[in-house]
Design brief:
The chain is α+β, with helices and mostly antiparallel strands. It is built from 20 helices and 33 strands. The strands form nine sheets. It has a seven-stranded mixed sheet, sandwiched between helices. A hairpin with a 6-residue loop joins strand 2 and strand 3. Helix 2 packs parallel to helix 4 and helix 15 runs parallel beside helix 19. This is Xanthine dehydrogenase family protein molybdopterin-binding subunit. Pfam families: MoCoBD_1, MoCoBD_2. One of its GO terms (molecular function) is oxidoreductase activity. It comes from Maribacter algicola.
Length: 728
Amino acid sequence: MKKNDTKITDTLGRRKFLKSSGGAVLFIGASGLLPNFLSCTDAKGMQGNAKKHDITSWVRITEDGQITIYNPAAEMGQGSMTALPVIFAEEMDADWSKVNVEFSPQESDIYGSPGWQPGTKLMFTVGSRTTNSYYTVMRNAGAQARHVLLHSAANHWGVPLEELTTGSSEIMHEKSGKKIRYGALVPYLTMPETLPDLTEGALKDPKDFKLIGSQIPRTEIPEKVDGSAQFAIDLRLPDMVYGVLERGALHGAKPTLTNEANILAMEGVLKIVPFDHAIGVVAMTLEAALKAKKALDIQWSDAQATGFNSQDMYPIYAQMASAPEKGSTVNEVGNVDQAFRTAAKTYEADFKNDYVYHAQMEPLNAVIQVAADGQSAEVWVGSQQGADTKLGIPDLLGIPHEAVNVHLQYLGGGFGRRSMNDFVLECGRLAQEMAPKPVKLLWTREDDVTYGCYRPLTLQRLKVSANAQGDITGFSHCVVGDGGNLVASGARNDHYAIPNQWVEWREASHGVRLKHWRSVGHGPNKFAIEAMLDEVAHDQGTDPVALRRKLMADSPRALATLNKVAEISNWDAPSPEGRAKGVAFVEHGSLGTGVCEISVDRNTGKINVHHFWIALDAGVVVQPDNVKAQMEGGIIMGISSVLKEQITIVDGQVQQSNYDNYPLLRMQEVPDSIETVIIPSAEHPEGVGETATPMVAGAIANAFLKLTGKRLRHLPFTPDRVLEVLNS
């Protein structure tokens, strides 16, 4: 990331403050070169903020025509570093070949997008919400930048603004034949007394888009290919020292170190820092820190997880699902009890899923330097950000938010894990002890597997009622597990016309660390829902696609994805001998239906996924090629988690430690083809990063049912479990 060279660190006497209406504020540097556009609803309030913060803008233009657009979202391979600036550049009418992209400062008041609660602004790259939440923000900001340029040209030429048009970083006045490039206009920039309150109608008609929807190479790919891209783990600072923590394998256990003197006497060791959950070691080199960590003699206390055995929980969860007391209501439509009383036939099944680890490529790490007086700090980290854009460091150090500067780096994978800032706070504590030396904290892979934060273990009890005509009249879904929305999200059936529905969550807690995992509760819940629908169709002798067509009668956009994927997968054509197809629908922001074709080795129990087809409605698609890449990555991650990935806990101890005993999908196991068709839409963009992954389990289970007549109900579908089902 380039260092921002436009700052406001003193009074506005050195900068000319030009007021605006709500929506943007323009600062012009003393050199007159650069306008800074800041999203702001209160210009007076922003003036106060300007005195407190180093402030940069949405956009910077230089006289040679170079344009820098600031990206407010984390970039972890999902393409936000291109998608959001493309939206801005579209409304600004910027020449994309002249655009550079940098991370914005981590200041949510300026660069945040509308949050999940009214009146909040967040910089939080989670939940497939980045393009969805920033789409209007970036369009408005780009259009306001264009308006200021038009205003400046109108003043410079002495012509009405309404007579001017723009195109590819150029302003034209047709009557006089005058043209001026954006860069050439920089010395003449002036700010209007007020900026228009740009509404949807004042923005471009989607039919006039030139950048949005085009095939535009991602801005960060070249430096990732040539190795110049900087992740936090790459960072080296002068006098930097290294920190590691021993956290143990029992979540929540408290440590007592018994050989502190011996550790401090080891070569290169600088300090031991105790935590409630760990013992930290700071050393001159990473090698010295790791050697000292290995030599730590720690006595661990018991914790809530002591005695917990994950695989023994399913019978207990089943008993909890059978208890007469209801859990927390997640969704209620109609009267399911009445539907079951009057049903011609009912179905019931339990679905299970084990804990799953995030397995992000780059190990967790951060670099923090606390000033000698402890009153300021610099943070370099790959983070999915959060409700606090300073990642908890101000509260940890007891200093103002403006005294902490976060330098966001590329993320080598997130999947929800890096939306939790425990590792940042650990690094901050070490840096506080070592000030003013910068400290790099590194989690080893073993640290992250054994002390990770997992997708929760759950049991889902589904009950379905049908009338004499075979129509589904009632759908009851009971989720048992820990984590609230981590287990309950995705259990609704808003796109299926089922008149009576009930979804509830029954809480269990075991002291195991949990966190959002790509698609959160949608993975287990959509698996259970989609597999249950196919079990009903199988029993009734109904085609699974035909059953869903009937259920989607009132949801035309969802139905369109179903029909399109049936077409591209040749659903009605027979599969080759020994293969079968399965279908599953998912709504996670965007709407998608997937079909997979599998085979099963009946001797080993190994499932092979040969082809996957997806039809997707994501609203306006900013980067079509990147959306397809997101779907492909989501499918591959889904297959890995569905067929292989499993965290097990015995007596509170995580049994896996690295990729030798936590296997991931290998390259030779990837499907022969993954085909995605994007259905054109002018609707507001929806997220795509979490749509593909949760459709995999249902599609594979349904293909397995069609191929073998047997039901897979426990994730992951490991070979031993498959053989057990086949031989049952």
